[in-house]
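Quick note —
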Amino acid sequence: MKVVEYQKLLGVMYREDYQNDPFIAKTIIESGWAVKRLLGNGTISPFDEYEDVQELIMNETKWRDKDGNYRKVLPI
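Predicted structure written out below.
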């Protein structure tokens, strides 16, 4: 799957399936923002294979602190 296809998939998943689930919706939105930032600064291309840039996308999300530990995003 190309990065552009991954972006479209995130949009469909949000609109059609998870818009009313706050935790999953936030995860999908943050993933989309991470992809947009990486595309905007030229780190990745819309035509890159998602599997090749998946780690870059995950590292760009706001789920981890700078030390690499996952941060709490929703109150439990």
